[in-house]
Amino acid sequence: MKLSEKNYYEDLEIGFEYETPAITVGEAHVLGFAGLTGDFADVHVDEAFAREMGFKGRLAHGILGLGLIDALKNRCLVGFHVVAALNWQWRFVGPLYIGDRLRARLTISEKRLTSRKGRGIITLAIKGVNQNDETVQEGTNQIMVLCRPAGA
Question: Where is the signal peptide (predicted)?
């Protein structure tokens, strides 16, 4: 598969793996997300409480981590002619702390054509990993992509 910003269904090979750049999960991310969603749970905003619960510090919201992973995926050098996002199956498997460097490892695990001509569905197996190479989130994302137009 070529590395490009826009790949068609035909360009995508099952088993192709790639990794995104990393982003540091910051205080502004967590407080901004808390303000946006109204989720001010103590484990996200109270350092002492998070430590009392056995964590080494405050945790980023799990859904914030998923959002950052999706953004990293979408800004990566490997891109797709996306029609629509269809499905997420996701698990939070480890803590994501403020200050962690989060990146995503992606593998094209499945692909199939749709009943509608000119479109296909790919499944990405994704692992969100921190700076210590520990998986903190994982799951799959299905997206509908365009097939290569005739003559392209």
Answer: none
Query: Which position has the token pair 């891109």?
Result: 79
Structural domains in the chain plus CATH codes: 9-146 (3.10.129.10)
Give, in order, the Cα–Cα distances in Å from 103 to each of 52, 71, 79, 90.
Answer: 28, 10, 16, 16
Radius of gyration of the chain (CA): 18
Q: Which helix (H) or strand (E) holds 30?
A: helix 27-37
Amino acid letter, residue 119: R
Q: Which helix (H) or strand (E) holds 66?
A: helix 62-75
- pLDDT tens digits, 77-129: 678 889 999 999 999 999 999 999 999 999 999 999 999 999 999 999 999 99
Neighbours of 80 (CB within 10 A): 23
Listed in sequence order, the residues at least 6 apart from 101 whose beta carbon sits closer than 8 Å to its beta carbon are 22, 23, 24, 25, 130, 131
Helix axes 27-37, 62-75, angle to 10 degrees: 110
- What is the CA 97 to chain-centroid distance, rounded? 16
